[in-house]
Amino acid sequence: MFSPRLKAYSLVLASGSPRRQQFFKDLGLDFEIRLREIDEVYPDHLVASEITDYLAELKGKAFEGALAENEILITSDTIVWHKNNALGKPKDAEHALKMLHDLSSSTHQVITSVSFKTTQKVTTFHDCTEVTFGALSEEMIQFYVDTYKPFDKAGSYGIQDWIGLVAVQSINGSYTNVMGLPTHLVFDYLKKF
Predict the structure, then answer these.
(1) Catalytic annotation, pick one of 77, 92, 127, 152
(2) I need a surface site. Which of 73, 145, 156, 171 has the fewest CB within 10 A?
(3) Is residue 3's pLDDT more than 90?
(4) How many Cα atoms sit within 13 Å of 74 on the Cβ side?
């Protein structure tokens, strides 16, 4: 299914996200996980997908000079874009409660960028999914944060969790993108590599 040329390469996934790791397994890809700590800070003038493109590429720069000729490094970043603001991972429970309160009864975008880096070049693309939430009561928000502790998730929620069952009224775009990886685009890129 994948190009024979891809077989000459080793895939390196630079993500600690269990969801992204599972997606790579589900796609039938052989890969290794390699992590590097970076400060996820971006210039103030960037908006929407410019932010995720920048951060996905920044994560790749942490591996500068550390890749073999036959390795493809995959990095990614996800944000929730709501009312012209980027919502990343919450700092704490109070921050998570505020984010979910803001997302209640409104539509937001989930943007994920994926960057493929070799010793020769960097290719970055992104996907955007529109998600509409119904009304969330204070009780629902408190229950979700207390029970699911969504502190590792952009926008303070995982669509695959309880909140996805009770709050999401509609999705326009890729479901897996909302979970942190536009798998159809990753598959297409690797198929054509």
Answers:
(1) 77
(2) 171
(3) no
(4) 29
How much is the pLDDT for 146?
97
Nearest to 90 by CA among 82, 81, 100: 100
pTM to 2 decimals?
0.95
Residue 26 among the catalytic residues = no
Contact between 193 and 3 under an 8 Å Cβ cutoff? The reply is yes
Instruction: Encode the chain in three state secondary structure.
Output: CCCHHHHHCEEEECCCCHHHHHHHHHCCCCEEECCCCCCCCCCCCCCCHHHHHHHHHHHHHCCCCCCCCCEEEEEEEEEEEECCEEECCCCCHHHHHHHHHHHCCCEEEEEEEEEEECCCCEEEEEEEEEEEECCCCHHHHHHHHHHHCCCCCHHHCCCCCHHHHHCEEEEECCHHHHCCCCHHHHHHHHHHC
Q: How far apart are CA 70 and CA 193, in angstroms?
A: 13
Average pLDDT, the chain: 96
The pLDDT-based confidence of 193 (bands split at 50, 70, 90) is confident
